[in-house]
Design brief:
Number of domains: 2
Strand order of the largest sheet: 4-3-6-2-7
CATH architecture of the largest domain: 3-Layer(aba) Sandwich
Structural class: alpha/beta
Number of strands: 9
Strand content: 5-15%
CATH superfamily of the largest domain: Peptidoglycan recognition protein-like
Order of helices and strands: EEHEEHEEHEHHHHHHEHEH
Helix content: 25-40%
CATH class of the largest domain: Alpha Beta
Radius of gyration: 20 Å
């Protein structure tokens, strides 16, 4: 793994904070950049410098936001200064800026490229699983505790294809550590990522919930069009979402999918009925909470923990 000094990193604008605690999970990201065919070390170093410049000069952060970066050629680089040294020590963690609410309790790994419609190349994948295994071994993180950025934010990151590979990643990391995961451990409950252009029962259920919340006007039609995009964005602004971008993902679903009890009426109850018909569920529990919603939405599994950083608003 290349340290910051090896790839030509700038000095941070201020010293990164170091917390005397171990992180409890890993968050997988993609850089959303080009899927370059250049797998060389110089290309990896240029990519790392570009990310750092964007994070410092455009975002105003003190350094690169992620703890580690993996190039398409499988070269692993330290992102935020001191991350590698603290990882090797296995006791403390550098505060990152890769995902609000997760920057102290989760190690952020950026993977070069965009993985919405294509899989990551083999060199990147092999380095990702090896890096995750090393992080798990040093910090005592269970290999089941690997998540995608979209599990906690309204974002496409780490791309549909890479996100869909996370159960495989958990299993392969466990194998490198000499463990085996149950299907429940490898498959986590999620929230569906809905976006403009989508259609169908899940969109219609979301529209019913948006009308229940007071941001959708008119009748649901199962189409994620401009009207729905506006309703989602309005909901996100009202709920002070970090990512108020009209993507309905892991940050906004938990607030939108409110608890519904047996005998309830209104649009939220109608959304439950609609999804139960769609999934051919004969009996719905008396209390429809988040795990039940996720099963009705087709994204059930082991619960995703919601623990947040202890520091409140983290420095960037």
């Amino acid at each position: 793994m290349a340290r910051c000094s090896e790839w030509g990193a700038r000095r941070p604008s201020s010293p990164p904070k170091i917390w005397d605690r171990r992180p409890i999970r890993i968050l997988v990201h993609h850089t959303a950049g080009a899927n370059t065919p250049d797998f060389s070390v110089p290309a990896a170093h240029r990519m790392a410098r570009g990310i750092q410049a964007f994070h410092m000069d455009r975002n105003g952060w003190l350094d690169s936001g992620q703890h580690f970066t993996i190039s398409r050629g499988g070269h692993v680089l330290e992102g935020r200064l001191y991350s590698l040294g603290e990882l090797n020590g296995g006791r403390r963690v550098v505060e990152g800026a890769h995902s609000p609410g997760q920057n102290i309790i989760a190690i952020g790994i950026e993977n070069e490229g965009t993985y919405i419609g294509v899989d990551p190349p083999a060199p990147l994948w092999n380095s990702l699983r090896a890096t995750c295994a090393y992080i798990c071994s040093r910090y005592g993180i269970a290999p089941s505790e690997l998540y995608g950025h979209r599990d906690y934010r309204n974002t496409i990151c780490p791309g549909d294809r890479l996100y869909g590979m996370l159960p495989r990643l958990r299993n392969e990391v466990a194998g490198l550590l000499g463990r085996r995961l149950s299907r429940t451990e490898a498959t986590k409950a999620t929230w569906p990522l809905l976006r403009e252009g989508d259609s169908g029962p899940l969109v219609e259920a979301a529209q019913l919930l948006l009308r229940d919340a007071g941001t959708l006007r008119g009748d649901p039609d199962g189409r994620y069009d401009d009207r729905t995009l506006g309703a989602v964005t309005e909901f996100q602004v009202l709920h002070r979402a970090e990512d108020a971008n009209g993507l309905l993902g892991g940050e906004s679903w938990p607030e939108l999918a409110r608890t519904v009890r047996a005998g309830s009426e209104g649009d939220a109850a109608r959304a439950v009925e609609l999804l139960a018909r769609h999934r051919k569920v004969e009996s719905v529990p008396d209390v429809v909470d988040h795990p039940v919603w996720q099963k009705l939405l087709g994204t059930g599994g082991a619960p995703v923990p919601v623990a947040q950083d202890p520091s409140g608003v983290a420095d960037r």
